[in-house]
Amino acid sequence: MRDLLPTVDDWSASDPLLAVATVVRTSGSTPRPAGARLLVSRDGRMAGSVSGGCLESAVVLEAQSTIAGDAPARLLHYGISDELGWSVGLACGGSVDIFVETLRGDGSDPALQAVAKETEAERPIALLSVIDGANVGRRAAVVEETRVVGSLGDPAADAAAPLAVATRLASGLPGVEEIAGIQVFVDPIVPTPQLAVIGAVHIAIPLSTMARAGGYRVTVIDPREAFLTRERLPDADRLVAAWPDEALPRLALGPRDSAVCLAHDPKFEDPALTTLLTTRVGYIGAIGSRSTHAKRVARLHQAGFDDEAIGRIHSPVGLDLGAATPAEIAIAILAEMVAVRRGRSGGALSAKTATAAAVA
Fold it and tell me: 286: which strand partners?
């Protein structure tokens, strides 16, 4: 929804009543993922896409019918045939559920107003839409992970909404949740995730490059200015010449963010880890062997941290890829960061396919 907000403002100047179609479920091969949206005006203008072109005409007609009041907000189901799939570059067909609803861009919808305000401030927010049942079309937003703006049309659902959407706010992945018996599409609108790299060592160079390409905003922290140069780290968004316990609190790291300690020297990593363990950062990695980590654990126990807190640290850091070079180690670290943020184990997809086939 974030990308469509400027268009909503622009089009609403002449006609505030618009329709938006949203991909809420997919099965098999589909051109667009859950969360893809198509904005439609009364006069037929379009922004965004829900199908890569193969369903747009039909969806626009449904959207304009909704604007005209001929049909309420509703859930549409489309099967994408093999022939149609080939036309948009798919090897086989699938199916897609698209929810069509009206919205007003004149400031009268509190949920949309909250979305505009929070996204402008780069704060996370979840936009919720009831897609079925008696309250279909009702919208709400979860702000600051606890506060509900607007209503889903049911007090129990409103009360349960913050907890129900917490995982999606952390992962950034949209999808349908059942909240107090109501089918609700949850669209988490979240800032770019951060990666804090402590230690401008050699592995930090490929890691900052790969993480930035993967959509992270990268900050490298090291008090040693000789290591912390733009020539060595051209792809880092920020270089902070400070001790970790001074620099990390300024980043306000949260559940979608990551931090990796690459300087396995107690005078760097101890202030970094003792600071990180007091935050809600979603991923903490620390380089080093198992024996190095055992010594680290002992020091953290002495600092007052219990096993549960220390268990948040991923060390040895990264997935088991057999990585040997700095670039390979960076790949292993980034892969584990993504897996943790998405709530996955990081195992091979082919192994899952083989297991599913054996069960079947």
Answer: 261
Q: In whole angstroms, what is the distance from residue 181 CA to residue 164 CA?
A: 12
102: β partners: 19
* Structure token pair of residue 50: 């829900």
The pTM for the full model equals: 0.75
Pairing of strands 46-48, 37-40: antiparallel
Q: How confident is the model at residue 349 (pLDDT cuts 50, 70, 90)?
A: confident
Distance between CA atoms of residues 72 and 130, nearest Å? 12
d(CA 319, CA 322): 9
Determine the average pLDDT of the residues in 217-245: 96
Phi, psi (rounded to 5 degrees) for 178: -95, 115
- pLDDT tens digits for range 258-305: 999 998 889 999 999 999 999 999 999 999 999 999 999 999 999 999
Written as six digits, the tokens of 237 are 């968004």
- Amino acid code (one letter) for 263: A
- Tens of pLDDT, residue by residue over 126-174, are 999 999 999 999 999 999 888 999 999 999 999 999 999 998 998 889 9
Supply the DSSP symbol for 80.
Answer: E
Radius of gyration of the chain (CA): 23
CA 15 to the chain's CA centroid: 32
> CA torsion angle for 204, 210, 214, 217 (degrees, to 10)?
30
Q: What is the pLDDT at residue 305? A: 97
Distance between CA 63 and CA 29 in Å, rounded? 24
Pairing state between β 125-130 and 182-189: antiparallel
Q: Which amino acid is at 185?
A: F
CATH of 194-342, one of 3.30.360.10, 3.40.50.720, 3.60.130.10, 1.10.3370.10: 3.40.50.720
Q: Where in the chain are the domains?
A: 2-189, 194-342
Average pLDDT over residues 222-239: 96
Contact 21, 94 (CB under 8 A): no
* Sequence-separated (6 or more) residues with CB below 8 Å from residue 168: 126, 174, 175, 177, 186, 188
Q: Are strands 94-104 and 283-286 parallel, antiparallel or unpaired?
A: unpaired
Amino acid of residue 214: G
